[in-house]
Amino acid sequence: MQLKYKCLVLDHDDTVVNSTATVHYPCFVEYMEKYQPQVHLTLEEYFRYNFDPGVVPMFTEICGLTVEEMKHEERYWKEYVRHHVPKAYPGFREILLEQKSRGGLIAVVSHSYSENILRDYRENDLPAPDLVYGWEYPPEQRKPSPWALEQIMASRGLAPEELLVVDDLKPGYDMALAAGVPFAGAGWANDIPEIERFMRKNCDRYFKTVAELKDFLFG
């Protein structure tokens, strides 16, 4: 059976696993209460600022953390994530299995660490991705840089149109746009109107449910 896209390039958090509401935001709240009690963001605000301007500007510009405080927060977050495993969205395992069974590739480009991504795939009984580009890469190579997509295409001999980026945030969209790769917005993690409006207006595709993405890929 023919594939629409030889390689699915997946974001991780809030695309494959439900992690912001259940892991990252609770960690953020816990950290700020301990070390930066003047900082208060609601879950909706946390989603919005992660969407735009992105996670690093959120901490530096919105929350006012210094570079050293950012490093401390990152160490705290990394330890917290070690002990909290998010759940995969229902139906995503079937998408990954179908992509693999048809001879396709699965790549992950994420702002989480690769070791945590691979752990989440194992713990959720998901087929292992073929390629992973995580937060451990230098800042200039992370999303929204197109570097990871360029590496995927070069290493596997793929053209831009043979990839599909699936991501819930603007840095993923910016990355895909810079590389000329088709982009699908993942809309199942939240119901924030301005995020959905941006995605519907700018993405090649937008899916409100995992089932809609599956139908598009394999239906």
Structure, explained:
The relative contact order is 0.18. The longest helix is centred in the N-terminal third of the chain and has 16 residues, at 20-35. The protein has ten helices and eight strands. The model has no long low-confidence stretch (mean pLDDT 96). It is of the alpha/beta class. Helix 9 (193-202) links the parallel strand 7 (183-186) and strand 8. It is 49% helix and 13% strand. The N and C termini lie close together (11 Å). Strands 5-4-1-6-7-8 form a six-stranded parallel β-sheet, sandwiched between helices. Strands 2-3 form a two-stranded antiparallel ribbon. Helix 1 crosses helix 4 (67-82), helix 2 packs across helix 3 (55-62) and helix 5 runs parallel beside helix 10 (210-218). The chain folds into two domains: 7-18 and 88-218, Rossmann fold (3-Layer(aba) Sandwich); 20-82.
